[in-house]
Every structure is written in C-alpha cells, then in structure tokens.
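Final report, closing paragraph on structural work. Over the funding period we assembled a curated collection of sequence-structure pairs, and we close with a single example.
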Amino acid sequence: MTDAPQVTPVILCGGAGARLWPVSRRDFAKQHAPILGGASPFQRTLRRFAAAPMFAAPIAIVGAEGRFMAAEQAAQTGVAVEIVVEPEGRDTLAAITAAAALIARRDPAATLLIAPSDHLIPDEAAFAAVVAAAARAAANGDLALIGVVAAAPSTGFGYIRPGASAGPVGRRVAAFEEKPGAARAAALIAEGCLWNAGLVCMRAGEGLAEIRRQAPEAVAAVEAALDAATDDLGALRLGDAFLAAPRISFDHAVLEKTDRAVVVAGDFAWSDIGDWREVWAQSEKDAQGVAAEGPVVALDAHDCYLRADRRLVCALGVEGLAVIDTPDALLVAPLARAQEVRGLVAAMTAQGRPEAAQSARTHRPWGWYETIDRGERFRVKRLQVAPGKQLSLQRHHHRAEHWVVVRGTAEVTRDGAISLLHENESVYLSSGCVHRLANPGRIALEIIEVQTGAYLEEDDIVRLADDFGRA
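Its predicted structure, as stored:
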C-alpha cells in the first residue's frame, strides 16, 4: 500500500443551520456559533486538520456575510486558512466546483477533501487514517466518499449503500438514500449501509473533469468567476459569473449520477450536530438525562436540553424538551420534533419576522453590536471593537449619538478632531457630524451608544472611508 498524498481540506461554510435556531441564524450560522461549549464547530474543524501533518493549509468557501467571522475565528484558532468568498450562495455544487477548479489551476494532481464546517469528530487520529485511505482510493480518479459506520438508526442522516469492491481500498457506491424513516433506517444499517457524512476525497483535475461531465454549466460559470476573481482584503472574491451556476447540491448533480463514486468506511464517532436532539445526545447530562448550558436550574426534569445564553432558565417537571433562550428569542419544542424547527423558521420568514434570520448580536469586521433597549425616538446599543480595529468614517442624517466608554480606550474622530476617551468618559455626536470610533488599545473596547432621533435604522449611515471596502 502506497503512502497517502498530502490532502488540501476544502471547508464548506455555507448554510444557515435553520434546525438549530435561535442560536444559528443566517447572519450567524451554526458553524460559527458556540455549540457544545467552547470553540465553534468551524474552529474544531480547523484544529482537526491542523492536528495531522498529512493536511495542507485549508481553503474555506464562505458567503459574503460570514467571511469576516471565518477569518476572525481562524485567527483565534491560530490556523492559517485561505478564504474564498462566494458573491451569493449557490448550494454545494457551485462551492465544490470552485474549490476543485481553483486547486486544479495550481496543481491538477493535488488531492482535496471536501468537508463540512460544522461536524463533530472527536477522534482526530481515526479520522486522519480514514482520510488517508480515501486519498489512496481517489488516486486513480475516483470520487472517494467517506461513509461512517452507523452507531444507531437515525432518521436525520443520509445513507450510502456500498456495492462491489473497488480495489484494495473502498467499494463502489451502489445507491444513496436520504433521511429514511425509523424502520427503514434500521433496515439499512442491518444491510451494511453507512452514514453519508458529506466527506469526499478527489484529485483536483480528475474531479473537475467529472463535474464537467455531469454539470458542464456549473464549471463554465465557476471558471468565468475565477477569471474575474479579485483580492478583497486578503480573501479571494469570486466574480459575479458565479451567479450563473445552478443552485443544486453536489450529491444530486454529480454523486448520484457518476459511475466513479467509491465509498471508504470510517469507524469513528461522528455527528453533524444537525438539530437540538443531536446536540442533546452529544452533550454531558446529569443522572436525569438533562443537559444544561448557561444559568439553568432544573427540578424533576428528565431528558431535556436546556440552554440559557443570558438570563436564568428554570424547568420544573418537564420531560423531553428543548428549551433554548437567547436575548431576543425563546424556543420550546419536544426533542422528538427537533427536525421540524426548520419549518418553524420558514413560518417566521413568511410572517416577515426579522428574528428568523437576524440574531440580536450583529457581527461586523471590526467587532459586534447588539441592541439592549429601544423605544420611540431612542435606541441603546452595546458595541465591542476589537484591538486595532476601527469603524468607518461616517455621518447620520437623522440621529444623534452619545458614546460612553465602559471598558478600554476609545479613539474618537469628530469633525476632524481626534481625542482619546477612557473608562467612564463620554462624547456627544450631533446629527450630521462626521465621526469615527477606533480601538488603539490591546484589549477589546466596549461602549454604550445611545441614539436619539426620528429615524434609527441601520441604513442611515453615509460611509466616507472604510477599512473593509464598504464606503
């Protein structure tokens, strides 16, 4: 058996993770959210690849709304990552085609691994060993999927049916089956079917050729987008030709049609953390089966997942519930119906509820802000600015602002004059004033901003200069 080649991970950072609402939303999706405590799923994914020398520096395919968060979390993790920005999400076919085309231009013989950004794989060594086997299986031009040995029947995962032997490593893919019912899932496992983990290994040139054979319009759009790609603050932004790529998954467009798909079995613990029931299953629990995160008190509760992001959550005499409390939204649902949260998000979207997609804390390339109170003609925000970062030079037509520094040091520009403010100091910014907030310090800057005026929405901003290309 030959040694496995070095593998370039391609981390897919699209998707909104709607079944994990209200923690996961379109503007702060589950791959970046703190789920299961500590690091985000994206950061865990980066560390998994950094732990094995067989992996080259990863490439992350991200949407415009998540590119700064991806860069920030990668920097926090200490893992160098190349970021490719999609002008618009077009599902996994377009994202994977972009990665294969980009890598093929550099080295057609390079091996890449398509990997979701939001999965849980605790055994990094076992994972790396299976990827090495898949890389060997892909060496002859096959698309090598990693199918996880199923621990139990699950209605939330897709399944792969292995077929005839494909040589020393792997077997031909005979069929796919997407999220069966409970009885069917049990039958599939008994027949030797594997969970579809969304992990695919391929050589860049040959993988791109197979995509071209199955979905030529996607390759044409992506190659035009690469030709027009530009550097955007250290990231590669694809050109607008990307929007012509069909909106379809890689599985449906390529894997279900190709005769070059093989599957390599991986016997390691795995979860896609796809809904709150799965989060509960992966969490530490007390003797009554209660998993709690945050300020939670439970009495006579059984088999529940209770999460409080800020205020106290108490549960008495309940069973089988998911209770997730965030600053602006509360979800109470039976764990057995966790897969249906996506439908609840769709209903909120249809009603025009902003909470369906927007979280209370809005992340920006310089830090974040959140609204803590609001009423007629006033709005109160809490802002945090990262060290060395600054907001745009801007003015507002309809509102005045009052900034109070509660932590750190603020550099304030007001109509051309620059001053420093320290904790417990404040500044007033009249309507129309040209101003900017910067953090010259080494710790995060936090301020309270009080807005007053007739119109207080975010589109009342005229940016005159900006470090992030938004002016």
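The CA atoms of residues 163 and 410 lie 64 Å apart. DSSP finds ten helices and 28 strands in the chain. We thank the funder for supporting this effort.
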